[in-house]
Amino acid sequence: MKILVMVKRVSDPNVIIRVNADNSAVDLNNVKMAINPFCEIAVEEAVRLKEAGVASEVIALSIGESQSQEQLRTALAIGADRAILIESDAALEPLAVAKLTAKVVAEEEIGLVLLGKQSIDTDNGQTGQMLASIMGVAQGTYTSKLEVSDEKVNLTREVDSGLQSISLNLPAVITCDLRLNEPRFASLPNIMKAKRKPLETKAAADYGIDLAPRIKTLKVEEPDTRQAGVLLNSVSELVETLNIKPEAV
How open is the CA angle 53-155-130, to the nearest 5 degrees? Predict the structure, then answer.
């Protein structure tokens, strides 16, 4: 079975993000970029499945600008076998990404698709669900535990009410939550080996898909600065500060 794992290029989680001068977008000039942390978890899980003998090949896929090759090389250093980059200079919305991914899934005859549950730049959390719908296959979202056996995927999902265990038939689409695993560090020898692993580049326009945006961003603003806290000396002072009626306490 082949596993396709999605890799998205985002700003480093430790970098302080600024909005550009005209409030039209986030300013990414000279900002350090990295793999989306949830995508990194998906890569790690795909590699573990291959090491366990479940998968025959792990393919890393990124859809975006040409600089995404850097993040694909990191995925290859973690353990992916080869990579595909679908280049697009435009910022693609989740629906366009899902449609392009579905094309790759069909071309490569993929048995399992792993994605991060969301990306830390837009926080949409939509691509995996849209992809499963387009493919017409089962989906498991917010996955914190995953096992594959006998053409089935048994997983645990993190939901509002607690944990939910479900079983899916393959092929399937899985989105990975934070507690699924702890990604390994890419060793220097593996980083050097990754430079020799195949990385195929294709153009998004060649797939004949309507990539036009459906959403228009009107304005981007930084969040309000959090105000300093206040130390209170008693419960009654707290009640008074919160303007709570004494009989309600």
Answer: 100
Q: What is the pTM of this model?
A: 0.85
Q: What is the DSSP letter of 136?
A: T
Degrees to nearest 5, angle at CA 57 with 5 and 40? 30
Domain 2-248 fold is Rossmann fold (3.40.50)
CA separation for the pair 44, 63 (Å, rounded): 19
First to last CA, the chain: 60
Q: How far is 89 from 82, CA to CA, in rounded Å?
A: 22
Angle between helices 69-78 and 37-51 (to 10 degrees): 40
CA 194-199-205 angle, 5° bins = 155
- For residue 99, which of 212, 3, 215 has the smallest C-alpha distance? 212
- Give the pLDDT confidence of 21-65 residue by residue, as tens digits: 888 888 888 888 899 999 999 999 999 999 999 999 999 999 999
- The predicted-structure confidence for 213-248, as pLDDT tens digits, reads as follows 888 888 888 888 888 888 888 888 888 888 766 555
Q: Which residue ranges make up each domain of the chain?
A: 2-248
**CA-closest candidate to residue 220, choices 14, 17, 52:** 17
DSSP 231: -
Which of these, 187, 175, 172, lies nearest to 76 by C-alpha position? 187
- Reported as type and span, the H/E element at residue 69 is helix 69-78
Q: Which 3 state secondary structure label does DSSP give 58?
A: strand
Q: Which among 4, 48, 6, 45 is positioned nearest to 144, based on CA atoms?
A: 45
Distance (Å, whole) CA 59 – CA 2:
7
